[in-house]
Amino acid sequence: MDNIFSWTDENEAIIATNTDATECKRCAVELGYWKDDYISYFVKHADRKAPEINRGYYARVRAMEMFIHQFLERCGTKCQIINLGCGYDTLYWRLKDSTQAVANFIELDFPSVTAKKCHIIKRNKQLLEKISNEDGEVIIRQGDLHADGYHLLGCDLSCLGEVKRKLAAAGATGELPALLLAECVLVYLRPESARALLEHLAGAFPRSALLVYEQCNLGDKFGEVMLRNLSARGCSLAGERHCREPAAQAERMRALGWEQARSWDMHTVWRALPEDDRARVEALEMLDERELLLQLNAHYALTVATRGDMFADMDLNA
Q1: How far apart are CA 146 and CA 141, in angstroms?
Q2: Which of 1, 97, 201, 306 has the smallest set of CB atoms within 10 Å of its CB?
Q3: Does the keyword Transferase apply (predicted)?
Q4: The domain that contains 256 carries what CATH number?
Q5: Which residue in 117, 148, 98, 110 sits closest to 5, CA to CA?
Q6: Could you tell me the end-to-end alpha-carbon distance of the chain, in angstroms, rounded to an integer?
Q7: Is residue 163 part of a domain?
Q8: Which range marks the domain in which residue 23 is found?
Q9: Rounded to whole angstroms, how far apart are CA atoms 287 and 306?
Q10: Which helix (H) or strand (E) holds 178?
Q11: Rounded to whole angstroms, how far apart are CA atoms 118 and 207?
């Protein structure tokens, strides 16, 4: 039986990282790093961030988009996307605008986060009208939102029984290809909870791709500083021992039931982006602390784990 969820100060600190990330994204969007017409609904003001932060977020967003497009190229829009620890992510609306809206889009996060996101959606016509259609209705109840093809649900990701119930309520099915997103999420779960979740997802979705973005190489001096800074904010990384070199992160996924897995640090990801993209971004701001950017990129990794032949060839250079 799953443990009953107990609220802690650390949960509050983890939730605060969503606000931080949204502010960083809004700053980068305002500076022209990428286009997002919806981020401003979720955070009203963002102080200017350091250039290396902006560039790091661009690499993260651009890399995730590259793999999302690879996934959709292979299966079309008759599929499902499940965003674990979605925060205030705007991917659903951006895909709607690109005519790549998928059959079912499911978002999960802490109930307090989803309740606030529901409130923001409800009071902003530009967000709400993309969710509803002429015949569909939008149901918001107890922090959860259900609409035709979009579900926003509050749950504790460390409680597997609750995750299963919420996914079932949202119409998740093993019959459709599934893209699973986990950006800076698994690392906050206890290792046994993360293991149970990953094993379940691998078994539940036989044709799937999992994109994981989180810290890596935390065993060196720079990693120690990162951990101390998080700890000072009341936010420890329960899954720290899995934040090793990228190759070990990929091996972890294979051991948990994923057939293929590849992982790269963000410096490698940055170098793999199209040259014209990099040139455009590098022209936006002068970068004084190039060494700091290199260190940051060496301590975050993108992992792609897949099941099913349809997605076996998903790769950084595909």
Answers
A1: 9
A2: 1
A3: yes
A4: 3.40.50.150
A5: 110
A6: 42
A7: yes
A8: 9-311
A9: 36
A10: strand 178-183
A11: 30
C-alpha–C-alpha distance, residues 146 and 157, integer Å: 19
Q: How far apart are the C-alpha atoms of 31 and 285, rounded to whole Å?
A: 9
Among 43, 9, 3, smallest CA distance to 24 is for 43
pLDDT per residue over 270-281, tens digit each? Answer: 999 999 999 999
Question: Which candidate, 153, 113, 119, places its Cα nearest to that of 15?
Answer: 113
Residue for token pair 């709607």 = 96
Q: Are 314 and 304 a contacting pair, CB within 8 Å?
A: yes
pLDDT band at 9 (very low <50, low <70, confident <90, very high): low
| Residue 192 in tokens | 């046994």
Residue indicated by tokens 């057939």:
259
Total number of domains constituting the chain:
1
Phi (first) and psi of residue 26, to 5 degrees: -65, -40
Burial label, 118 (beta-carbon count in 10 A; 0-12, 13-18, 19+): buried
Q: How many CA atoms lie within 13 A of 277 on its CB side?
A: 15
Tokens of 266: 């963000």
Within a domain: 258: yes
**How far is the C-alpha of 233 from the C-alpha of 214, rounded, in Å?**
18
Q: Residue 64 falls within a domain, yes or no?
A: yes
d(CA 152, CA 108): 6
61-107: pLDDT as tens digits: 999 999 999 999 999 999 999 999 999 999 999 999 987 789 999 99
- Phi, psi values for residue 255, rounded to 5°: -70, -20
Is there a domain that residue 133 lies in? yes
pTM of the predicted protein model: 0.94
What is the number of residues in the chain? 318
